[in-house]
């Protein structure tokens, strides 16, 4: 059997014959008569009608004999139509979406093209506008420059005319006063009543000017009333280039300052208003009119604030030196400094506590204080490491740095400062206990010439070693009260060749083992000042070496060097350059004192607490020393009036005398001083229990220049006398209490018993 056209047909018995017959039939009937079922036997056809000669009966679940109905055809046609409609409608939707997307994309591309076109147009317009603005700015700058030149010429012309008129007027005034002076002198010579002319009128004008420079403002005004010649001399402009109101600070008022500055403002170069507490806005306004002012000291002026500094900054742009210590200035003033004083070189902000690190940032902003070479920040404990960094960024040319009384100062502060300020030559760090050798490691990059440190227990000999290696030109070393400094440190700096000043006071580990090698070193012959206060291990061996090597020594302090005796002091008598020495608390006696006064050039001598000297020693010393100006013999209870008598009659230049703690002194010694020492300015008689009101009266009559008088524990001096005779003194101290036990005697000049002394 064979499946043919979907019908199972039996195989013919003779296939070849069957094929031959069918081929012949096709040849007779033609190809058009060929049907697909012509090779099937009729008996093999399925018994179905034509309409049912399909597989629809199977699809529609019809029986073999059932015919296709109209409903089935309708159902088939609906199914076919829906599918066909769904196919074409889906295609139509896809076509429309494609067109819509194309239109949307074209619209976006067109919008992007419009934006790009507008940007290109705007760029062209901005380029043209920028070019126009640049050209316009150049034209404006050129025009402004030309206008400024024209203004400057006109202003200069006006200034020159005004100056010419002022000079012409001054010449007329001077000629007028000179004519008056000539007439006065002519009348003087012709007069028979006046037979003697004052000696000072014969002095040249230059000599009078030099004398008047040492006179304060009040005395200068008095001098102007002596004669017409003196009046003319006091009107010389050179006398008013340097005005010192500080010397008369208790009498200075705004009106006085305003009157003087308005008259002499073109000539004022230096102005000192230190401690003038009563100055206010009018005075500061007058200062701002001194256009040529270069040096201004406003230290301790209580009326100074940021607004006052703003007034001053408007006119005094030529300032080089400015002292604002102990004032209430804030960050506002520091901002003014950076913009108003571009040439400022010296600035003191010591103990100004109201500015901050941010204020220091202003020093480097704008024109800034880039020329600053001197800066004092003593007592400014509010400054942190950031503040010092701001200083370094803005003021890299600093050469002199002073930071005293600042317990918050640390090594890190100095490190950040030195990172950019490498021109520092002088540093002063007194009372800064937290600094260590690390500070000197940082400062090793600077070529130090001066170092001053005091009250520090962390600095060791390593700092001296760093100085020796990195500071070959150092001249001034002040390392007082540094407990870890030893003889090894002095040996390390002995090769340095330029040391002029060495201060190791209160370094108690220093002994002959350090002093002698240093003096024998390269700087020994050049040394000018040496301070060994409280170096208790130093003996006569060191003093003798100093006398032999230090031929240029002018100042020597051996205070409380207990092991120094007459043997060393006698050697000092051969040092002809020595003019000042402190031998307080040593074992000096009359023999050493006599040898010390041999060359007669000593001007300052301190012998406090020297129990072995007597009146005879003082007399011998004063006979050979006529130039003595400063003499302190306090707490020498064995001295009497005879010692002061020798001072007064042999040393007429005395300006400072201290006889505190000398209970044997009486009114007689004060009479000696008042009679002979007319230049005396300082006197301490505390503990001189026998002095009375008579002593004050003598001082009032004889010592006209006395400024400071101390009278503690003087129970025989009354308060009424103090008020009467010391009213004009700058400073006086007085009480009538009994002497304290540490003086070593009581109110009756008796030495208290050890038991009482211990209990007290």
Automatic annotation (TrEMBL):
It is found in: Cytoplasm, Cytoskeleton, Flagellum axoneme; Cytoplasm, Cytoskeleton, Microtubule organizing center, Centrosome. It holds the Pfam family F-box-like. Residues 197-243 form the F-box domain. Residues 734-760 are annotated as: Disordered. PROSITE patterns: FBOX. Residues 750-760 have a biased composition (Polar residues). Coiled coil: none annotated. Keywords: Cell projection, Cilium, Cytoplasm, Cytoskeleton, Flagellum, Leucine-rich repeat, Repeat, Ubl conjugation pathway. One of its GO terms (cellular component) is centrosome. The keyword Cell wall biogenesis/degradation does not apply. Its main location: cytoplasm. InterPro entries: F-box_dom, FBXL15_LRR, Leu-rich_rpt, Leu-rich_rpt_Cys-con_subtyp, LRR_dom_sf. Component of the nexin-dynein regulatory complex (N-DRC). Directly interacts with SKP1 and CUL1. Interacts with TCTE1/DRC5. Substrate-recognition component of the SCF (SKP1-CUL1-F-box protein)-type E3 ubiquitin ligase complex. Component of the nexin-dynein regulatory complex (N-DRC), a key regulator of ciliary/flagellar motility which maintains the alignment and integrity of the distal axoneme and regulates microtubule sliding in motile axonemes. Specifically targets CEP192 isoform 3 for ubiquitin-mediated proteolysis and thereby acts as a regulator of microtubule nucleation activity. Belongs to the DRC6 family. This is F-box and leucine-rich repeat protein 13. The gene is Fbxl13.
């Amino acid at each position: 059997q064979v499946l043919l056209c979907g019908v199972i047909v039996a195989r013919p018995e003779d296939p070849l014959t069957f094929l031959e017959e069918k081929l012949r039939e096709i040849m007779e009937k033609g190809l058009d008569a060929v049907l697909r079922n012509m090779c099937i036997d009729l008996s093999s056809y399925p018994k179905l009608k034509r309409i049912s000669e399909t597989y629809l009966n199977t699809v529609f679940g019809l029986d073999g004999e059932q015919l296709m109905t109209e409903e089935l055809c309708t159902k088939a046609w609906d199914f076919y139509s829906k599918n066909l409609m769904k196919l074409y409608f889906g295609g139509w939707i896809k076509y429309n979406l494609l067109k819509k997307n194309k239109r949307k994309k074209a619209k976006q591309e067109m919008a992007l093209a419009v934006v790009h076109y507008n940007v290109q147009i705007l760029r062209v317009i901005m380029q043209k506008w920028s070019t126009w603005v640049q050209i316009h700015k150049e034209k404006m700058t050129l025009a402004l420059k030309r206008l400024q030149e024209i203004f400057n010429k006109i202003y200069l012309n006006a200034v020159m005319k005004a100056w010419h008129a002022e000079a012409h007027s001054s010449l007329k005034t001077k000629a007028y006063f000179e004519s008056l002076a000539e007439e006065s002198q002519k009348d003087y010579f012709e007069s028979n009543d006046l037979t003697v002319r004052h000696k000072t009128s014969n002095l040249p004008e230059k000599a009078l000017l030099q004398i008047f420079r040492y006179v304060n403002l009040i005395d200068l005004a008095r001098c102007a009333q002596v004669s017409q010649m003196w009046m003319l001399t006091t009107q010389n402009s050179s006398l008013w280039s340097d005005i010192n109101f500080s010397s008369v600070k208790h009498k200075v008022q705004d009106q006085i300052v305003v009157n003087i500055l308005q008259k002499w403002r073109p000539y004022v170069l230096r102005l000192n208003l230190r401690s003038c507490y009563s100055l206010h806005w009018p005075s500061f306004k007058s200062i701002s009119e001194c256009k040529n002012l270069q040096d201004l000291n406003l230290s301790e002026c209580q009326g100074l604030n940021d607004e006052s500094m703003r007034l001053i900054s408007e006119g005094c742009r030529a300032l080089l030196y400015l002292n604002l210590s102990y004032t209430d200035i804030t960050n506002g003033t520091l901002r003014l400094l950076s913009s108003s004083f571009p040439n400022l070189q010296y600035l003191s902000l010591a103990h100004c506590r109201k500015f901050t690190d941010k204020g220091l940032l202003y020093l480097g902003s704008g024109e800034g204080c880039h020329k600053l070479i001197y800066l004092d920040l003593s007592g400014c404990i509010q400054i942190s490491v950031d503040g010092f960094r701001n200083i370094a960024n803005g003021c890299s040319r600093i050469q002199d740095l002073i930071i005293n009384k600042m317990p918050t100062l640390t090594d890190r502060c100095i490190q950040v400062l030195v990172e950019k300020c490498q021109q520092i030559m002088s540093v002063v760090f007194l009372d800064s206990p937290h600094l260590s050798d690390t500070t000197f490691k940082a400062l090793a990059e600077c070529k130090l010439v001066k170092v001053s440190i005091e009250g520090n227990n962390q600095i060791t000999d390593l700092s001296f070693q760093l100085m020796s290696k990195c500071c070959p030109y150092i001249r001034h070393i002040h390392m007082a009260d540094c407990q870890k400094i030893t003889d090894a440190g002095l040996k390390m700096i002995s090769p340095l060749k330029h040391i002029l000043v060495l201060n190791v006071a209160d370094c108690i580990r220093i002994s002959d083992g350090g002093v002698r090698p240093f003096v024998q070193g390269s700087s020994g012959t050049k040394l000018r000042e040496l301070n060994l206060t409280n170096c208790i291990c130093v003996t006569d061996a060191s003093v003798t070496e100093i006398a032999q090597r230090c031929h240029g020594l002018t100042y020597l302090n051996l205070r409380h060097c207990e092991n120094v005796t007459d043997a060393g002091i006698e050697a000092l008598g051969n040092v002809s350059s020595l003019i000042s020495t402190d031998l307080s608390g040593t074992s000096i006696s009359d023999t050493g004192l006599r040898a010390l006064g041999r060359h007669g050039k000593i001007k300052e001598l301190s012998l406090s607490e020297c129990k072995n000297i007597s009146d005879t020693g003082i007399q011998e010393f004063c006979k050979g020393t006529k130039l003595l100006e400063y003499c302190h013999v306090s707490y020498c209870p064995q001295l009497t009036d005879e010692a002061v008598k020798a001072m007064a009659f042999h040393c007429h230049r005395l300006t400072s005398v201290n006889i505190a703690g000398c209970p044997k002194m009486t009114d007689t010694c004060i009479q000696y001083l008042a009679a002979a020492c007319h230049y005396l300015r300082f006197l301490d008689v505390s503990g001189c229990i026998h002095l009375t009101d008579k002593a004050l009266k003598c001082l009032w009559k004889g010592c006209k220049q006395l400024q400071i008088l101390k009278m503690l524990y003087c129970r025989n001096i009354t308060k009424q006398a103090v008020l009467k005779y010391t009213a004009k003194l700058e400073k006086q101290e007085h009480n009538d209490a009994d002497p304290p036990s540490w003086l070593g005697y009581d109110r009756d000049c008796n030495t208290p018993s050890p038991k009482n002394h211990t209990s007290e």
